[in-house]
Design goal:
The structure is a homodimer of 161-residue chains. By secondary structure, the first copy, chain A, is mainly α. Helices cover 53% and strands 7% of the residues of chain A. The termini of chain A are far apart. The interface between A and B is large, with 73 and 73 residues. The structure holds a DNA duplex (30 and 30 nucleotides).
Chain lengths: 161, 161
DNA sequence: CCTAAACAATTGACTCCATCAACTATTGAG
DNA sequence: CTCAATAGTTGATGGAGTCAATTGTTTAGG
């Protein structure tokens, strides 16, 4: 880093404005969310590198993750990815070329093709999931009570039953 | 959605395997992190759409967000984005063409160019930040106690002093 | 039955993001 | 002064995203 001549470059650790911009005090969800977003964001930054550890693009890693619980139609995958169906074609082309998945034509409806993990794909998926579940520092360093509380809070939020 | 003929497509609400894969019970950070990751992930899925509300690409939105606290050298921005410097050139080209930023040559070091937000860029940034701080449903629906606890936990985790 | 609408997947044209290698201009150290 | 290092750009290439158009298939209506 040599361009550090006197000017304000502020790359050090960026505490940013995590305090909530003048602290509206009434807007609890926004405050909590902004903090979460910060963590999320710094972590998502190295997701491409994480995927690259397995010679996957970020999206391929994402697909591999979603593909765990049974065959998915192309269009269903497109819905998961919130993207156009035409996009999935090329994406799956590349993954099929690497032997991670195969297209299987449905017999009930010959328009649809279902994606099935190959052995190799399933194995890679296991390794990937294991790697992705490794928490970042900010989480790993938290106190056990905070971790427990966080887990329970998130369960309540994500599993509304 | 017409391809729903009997087969297992499981797109409904995807509770996924949030319980932690056989519940190792010892690995608290992994459990908490996996839950956080789930939220993160479903939220990041519509970030492109959010950016598109402002006619920005996801990366442009990201840059606009980072560009708030003063001029940044191109290389510094590349470091923020964890990407190659050559990438930033075209990125900034497009943003400059839309009048959001300008390149200003440094006088101390004529190699570096600093990015400065234009009026329009700064205004758009404000609107963008406001929009981005809107919490997703899973957060908005949380109980106040959980929100408080979550905020405090995240503050402890992110502002280690 | 048969035609027309709806739908799954693909293709083609296009843009943006990302990487790498090569290049220019500038700085700074010996 | 010379030479290595640095900041930014360019060019080639590929993945990922969009949209519009096409093909093959299903389904619903007349």
């Amino acid at each position: 880093m040599s361009g550090m001549n006197g000017s304000s470059e502020h790359l050090e650790k960026k505490p940013a404005d995590l305090r909530g911009r003048a602290e509206p005090a009434g807007d609890l969800p926004r405050q909590a969310w902004t903090l979460l977003f910060e963590l999320m964001h710094t972590h998502m930054r190295n997701f491409p590198a994480l995927a690259a550890e397995f010679d996957l693009s970020p999206v391929q890693a994402h697909v591999l993750r979603q593909l765990g619980e049974g065959p998915l139609a192309m269009s269903t995958l497109a819905a998961y990815l919130s993207c156009d169906a035409s996009n999935v074609t090329g994406l799956v082309d590349r993954m099929e070329a690497r032997g991670l998945v195969v297209r299987r034509s449905s017999e009930q409806d010959r328009r649809v093709k279902r994606l099935v993990l190959t052995e190799e794909g399933a194995a890679l998926r296991e390794r990937l999931l294991q790697r992705m579940s490794e928490p970042p520092e900010a989480i790993a360093n938290m106190a056990d009570e905070d971790l427990c509380a966080l887990r329970d809070i998130m369960r309540r939020a994500l599993c509304p039953q």
